[in-house]
Amino acid sequence: MATMREMADRLEAGAAAIGELATAIYRGEPWPLTEVYGPGPESAWGPREVLAHVSEMIPFWMGEIELVLDGDGAEPPSFGRTEADPLRIEVIGRDRQFPARELLARIAVESGRVAARFRELDEVQAARVGRHVTRGDLTVSDIAERFLVTHVEGHVTQLREILAVAR
Fold it and tell me: How many CA atoms lie within 13 Å of 128's alpha carbon, on the beta-carbon side?
């Protein structure tokens, strides 16, 4: 299992990789908006949907980690959402209309903020447990890995694939 410091480094690297795609993203503007951006295959998304999602999910999952950290320790606090969460869908639908530069700036700022917070967490905090709505009990470290770090890394790959096809 990666340490919180290692995950902070990976999160920053993922955000930097998205930032490195900025020129290619700008060249394709204005990107057409997909008809389907709610629950379902994210493979149908274009750059704007991906950027809107990444910019909203980074602070969302950090907030969920903070809820777990603030739990009383008696019972694992409930956290999380599913892809069908109406607020998630609404935010993606709204934010995908913003210029890519705004979404890229949000990703840069939020990933830096979250990475800094990861580096503040000690081993006891990283081991705190929360109860996800569908995946059960997970530690803060598990939440960070699954819902933030590997999630961002996956969307880097997705953006690269979208841009490669668009060329």
Answer: 24
